[in-house]
Amino acid sequence: xxxxxxxxxxxxxxxxxxxxxxxxxxxxxxxxxxxxxxxxxxxxxxxxxxxxxxxxxxxxxxxxxxxxxxxxxxxxxxxxxxxxxxxxxxxxxxxxxxxxxxxxxxxxxxxxxxxxxxxxxxxxxxxxxxxxxxxxxxxxxxxxxxxxxxxxxxxxxxxxxxxxxxxxxxxxxxxxxxxxxxxxx
Length: 185
Hints:
By secondary structure, the protein is of the alpha+beta class.
């Protein structure tokens, strides 16, 4: 199994991102645009996971009691070195605390923490191949006025399984973990 933990997006945000990507997508842009059903905020990428690790993490993730998390998309941006166009997610304290709680829960099950700093975002498009840099430059020229996105309160995080297919990645939900405790009011 190839797993990761993430927050699903609110329908209003999916609608806003869909409008943005529909406006930016050009027929010949040589970009692989992510499907709306794959959009999420990754909290931890677990990668290849065996059954024993899976059996370890699910109950540990259920032990996390955390209030609902405010999520706000700020702007769009680019990871030029990786050829990624993304929507940036504000690193709110509650989001960072949840992300650290998930890492603390999965570490005893054999998962290592990332060496890179956590940068919450939603991948919207990827460029690959020899024309990657040119594709991103062309996309940047089409951006125009920055969009404003609706904030939302995440009331759950999910354990996803990722499947790589010819048309792109497909995700299935393996487990749901509610947010919202007595602390959230």
